[in-house]
Design goal:
- With 153 residues, the chain is of the alpha+beta class.
- Helix content is 25%, strand content 38%.
- It has four helices and seven strands.
- A seven-stranded mixed β-sheet has the order 1-2-3-4-5-7-6, sandwiched between helices.
- The protein is globular, with a radius of gyration of 15 Å.
- The chain starts with a strand and ends in an 8-residue tail after the last strand.
Length: 153
């Protein structure tokens, strides 16, 4: 599947909000996504095939620590490396902005996502009891240092 990873643009917001509704029990509405375009602390990237959003990832950074807030891929495009490519592109963008680490929360029951994050070098650093609603569930906190890793060059 052909796609490009690009910064989120206004034209992507409605599709991202629709994907939020499809994938999450507590989705972000368009009114919460749109301000991320002008938030200097945010980096949001989209995997786009032409005008179609296949997936997206969003983050915010405070000082030198970043939090991945949102990541989703349309069901028909899953298991094709899009989520991995989005995370890798996000880490590179955050590295360039001087972030030293990336942290995220994931449902304890989301084994495929946990496996993906661990394969990218994330490690569990904590747990948030009852973090998620609908259904209520704990979150595992995963973290990865992104600024100081040696990439083999």
């Amino acid at each position: 599947m052909q796609y490009q990873i690009v910064p989120m643009a206004p034209a992507h917001i409605a599709q991202i909000a629709a994907l939020e509704r499809l994938c999450f029990s507590d989705p972000w509405p368009e009114a919460a996504i749109a301000p991320e375009l002008t938030n200097e602390l945010s980096v949001w990237l989209v995997a786009a095939s032409g005008e179609t959003v296949l997936g997206y990832v969003g983050s915010q950074t405070v000082l030198d620590e970043s939090d991945m807030m949102n990541l989703a891929v349309v069901p028909e495009a899953r298991r094709q490396g899009i989520a991995r490519a989005l995370i890798e592109a996000l880490m590179e963008a955050l590295r360039k902005k001087g972030s030293g680490s990336l942290r995220l929360e994931v449902r304890v029951s989301n084994a495929p996502a946990i496996a993906l994050y661990e394969s990218l070098g994330f490690a569990a650093v904590g747990r948030r009891p009852n973090y998620y609603f609908h259904p209520k569930e704990d979150a595992i906190i995963l973290r990865k240092d992104i600024c100081y890793e040696h990439n083999g060059d």
